[in-house]
Write a structure and sequence with these properties.
Strand order of the largest sheet: 1-7-6-5-4-10-9-8-11
Largest sheet: 9 strands, mixed
Number of strands: 11
Strand content: 15-25%
Number of helices: 8
Helix content: 40-55%
Structural class: alpha+beta
Distance between the termini: 26 Å
Shape: elongated
């Protein structure tokens, strides 16, 4: 049974796409140096080691010769190093706490990224319309200057372009039929989905819809040379090595699609199990 539907192949959820793009692009520290938590054990070990050396220099000063100031100088150097280790620990600890505060969290960055798109994003919109919103944002200074935002926008543009230009097999209708196939030689994508074959309009800006037919409705497929030339009612030229898909529309009516002859592997894989005309 053939069904004609409005297609939602080019409809997206902007908020979900923004979230997915950010998650794919986000890397800790991408927008600056990562503030790691200082190692307390290493700090304590370092301080104890320097205190021991400082004590040894002090004992040496009293036991060897109180007149030799060298031991006091060495002791002062070790004491200074000890203080520096302690100072460095607390400085790094403060930086770590600041980096991991609420204002610098991943969630805060994501919310800042979402804010670039405004507060009135609908739950659904056409990918082409959303792309018009996304493109100008990519040139904003806040995006250019922040690697995470820049990478997220790159991901988002790629996702939308893929949505509008999928990798499904392309074909052209040789037959005018119903409300979807209203213009001969128009481009459609074809894919197999949940046991049905779906032919949907390539025009993502203004799609006419999609034609859905059961597997049993596909009568045959094969090279155009295996079919009578009279099936081509489009008036356009069809190469002999092009593939043809024949669909039973009921009441003795047939629908024919043409697929580029170079797509042999994809065609045979897609229509595996369907009778091949020879």
């Amino acid at each position: 049974m053939i069904q004609e539907n409005k297609t939602r192949r080019y409809t997206v959820n902007p908020k979900s796409m923004i979230d997915a793009a950010f998650e794919n692009a986000y890397t800790d520290g991408q927008d600056g140096p990562v503030a790691t938590k200082p190692d307390l054990a290493v700090t304590i070990t370092g301080v104890l080691s320097m205190l021991i050396v400082t004590g040894m220099y002090l004992l040496t000063f009293f036991e060897k010769s109180k007149s030799e100031k060298l031991w006091l100088i060495l002791m002062a150097v070790c004491a200074a190093i000890t203080l520096f280790i302690i100072y460095k620990y607390f400085k790094n600890l403060k930086a770590y706490k600041n980096y991991n505060s609420t204002d610098n969290s991943k969630h805060a960055k994501k919310m800042e990224f979402f804010a670039l798109f405004g507060d009135d994003l609908p739950e659904e919109m056409e990918a082409a319309d959303f792309l018009k919103t996304v493109s100008p944002i990519a040139t904003k200074p806040v995006v250019v200057q922040k690697p995470t935002f820049k990478a997220s926008l790159f991901q988002l543009v790629n996702m939308l372009n893929t949505k509008n230009n999928p990798s499904d097999l392309l074909c052209k209708n040789m037959t005018v039929y119903g409300s979807v196939l209203t213009q001969a030689r128009h481009r459609y994508y074809v894919k197999k989905e949940n046991g049905t074959f779906v032919f949907y309009d390539q025009d993502f800006m203004n799609p006419a819809g999609e034609l859905v037919c059961d597997e049993k409705d596909i009568v045959s497929y094969g090279r155009f040379s295996a079919y009578p030339s009279s099936i081509n009612k489009s008036g356009g030229k069809v190469h002999q090595d092009s593939f043809v898909v024949e669909i039973d529309a009921g009441d003795g009516e047939r629908i024919y699609f043409e697929i580029n002859g170079r797509e042999t592997e994809k065609v045979k894989k897609l229509f595996k199990g369907i009778k091949e005309a020879k």
